[in-house]
Amino acid sequence: MKLIIVFVALSMIASLGLASDPSPLQDFCVADNYSKVFVNGKVCKDPMLVTAKDFFYDGLDKPGNTSNPLGSMVTQVNVMQILGLNTLGISLVRIDFAPGGQNPPHTHPRATEILTVLEGTLYVGFVTSNPENRLISKTLNKGDVFVFPQGLIHFQQNVGYGNSVAIAGLSSQNPGVITIAKAVFGANPPISDVVLAKAFQIDKQLVDKLQASFWMDNN
């Protein structure tokens, strides 16, 4: 009986350890976007067909277009841009902010994020899970680094007088992003206004107005 309990416990620990991007079992597994096989992640390209291009991305020095209602733009560098990131459990983004620009409250369901400010001043923070919902926030300047734990709602706001730029690493080849306001009020098909009115303790007319608004992505 003790042996069975130990085996079950070890199995649970192992399953938790695998609850992330799949670990590589060879030097690399460059994604094959032409494969019709559906797997968790992407199918490997024939290693003999791999070239340096599969591990390369250019243009991250170019500012993103922040001429939008949010005043920010996220340039993603994940497995969709660099096929060689497949199974490596890492990706990158550049975030550009106009003065007053914001990367609105969002989550990454599959990744922790570590962000460093290259230019400007950002007010950043994340909110812990229920029941505390504690806001942990800080104003960052050039060279400062901040970590956003996986799955927690977080944000960045440019509070400086000029443009701001940040680079962030994420612990997944495909971290995913859920922008809270857009997901709730811009769901397709829409979430029932009765549900949202009760959840947010507001009247249905305000819910209808919010659902009729344009909810944009900044990436």
UniProtKB/TrEMBL annotation:
The Gene Ontology CC terms held by the record are:
apoplast
Keywords, sorted A to Z? Apoplast, Disulfide bond, Manganese, Metal-binding, Secreted, Signal
Location of this chain's protein in the cell: Secreted, Extracellular space, Apoplast
Indicate which residues the UniProt annotation says bind oxalate: 103, 108, 113
Please name the Gene3D superfamilies in this protein's record.
Jelly Rolls
* Pfam families, per the entry: Cupin_1 (PF00190)
Does the keyword Manganese feature in the UniProt annotation?
yes
Record flagged with keyword DNA-binding: no
Give the signal sequence positions: 1-19
Record-level Gene Ontology MF annotations: manganese ion binding
Designated name of the protein: Germin-like protein
Q: Which organism is it from?
A: Amborella trichopoda
